[in-house]
Amino acid sequence: MNAPRACLQRLLLALSALAATACTVPPQQATAPPVAEYAVVPEDTKQLADLIGYYTRVAAMAPDDQRREYAGAAQAFNRERSEYNRVRLALVAAMPGTPFQDEARALGLLEPFAAAGANVGKVAQFGAMLHAQVNERAKARGRADQLKEQLDALRAVERTIIERGQMPPAKRQ
Fold first, then answer.
1. How far apart are CA 65 and CA 173, in angstroms?
2. Dist. CA 120–CA 63, nearest whole Å
3. Residue 44: predicted pLDDT
4. Rounded Cα distance, 38 and 66, in Å
5. pTM (2 decimals)?
6. Where is 50: in which H helix or E strand?
7. Which 8-state DSSP code applies to residue 163?
8. CB atoms < 10 A from the CB of 127, how many?
């Protein structure tokens, strides 16, 4: 009698579990799409992303197109001397490998950002970082030029020593 009772209890337990799952209502499909939650992106963050994308696009352009972009950035800066336009022009002016590369101008444009602290906007912070990068590159170029001059001077001394050590062919005999 225990066996049929245990079997009955298991059957009732299984049926109650089945009934419990059958009675739950599946989530209904919403008829309207859920309201999308958009994060508000600060303007300086948008500008920073735009500057990075701009640099990438200009770097991939042909030299003539790069010249046009440089002229356009200069015109935009002359029209409106905003932080954004200042950094944009400096980015293009400092771009290595371009025919118009002008690190001195880029450094001059970025000078107002040189001492920017953490309490300024992202574009100004980017300007400070760019100033540091261009400044280091200019220093490295200066050191390389100095080393090249020293090497040229050593080669000239070496040529002089070699020339002094050689006698004209007529006097050697």
1. 66
2. 34
3. 81
4. 36
5. 0.64
6. helix 43-59
7. H
8. 26
Structure tokens at 15: 């049926």
How many other C-beta atoms can be found within 10 angstroms of the C-beta atom of residue 155?
10
Taking each helix axis from N to C terminus, what angle separates 83-93 and 43-59, rounded to the nearest 10 degrees?
20
Distance, CA of 129 to CA of 91 (rounded, Å): 11
Q: How far is CA 133 from the centre of its chain?
A: 12
Under-70 pLDDT residues of the chain: 1-36, 118, 167-173
Residues 57 and 86: beta-carbon distance below 8 Å: no
Burial bucket for residue 24 (CB in 10 Å: 0-12, 13-18, 19+): exposed
Q: Kindly tell me the sign of the dihedral angle through the C-alpha atoms of 92, 95, 98, 102.
A: positive
Region of 7 (left: φ > 0; alpha: ψ -120 to 50; beta: rest) is: alpha
132-135 contacts: CB < 8 A, separation 24 or more? 134/90, 134/94, 134/103, 134/106, 134/107, 134/110, 135/107
Token couple for 143: 């050191």
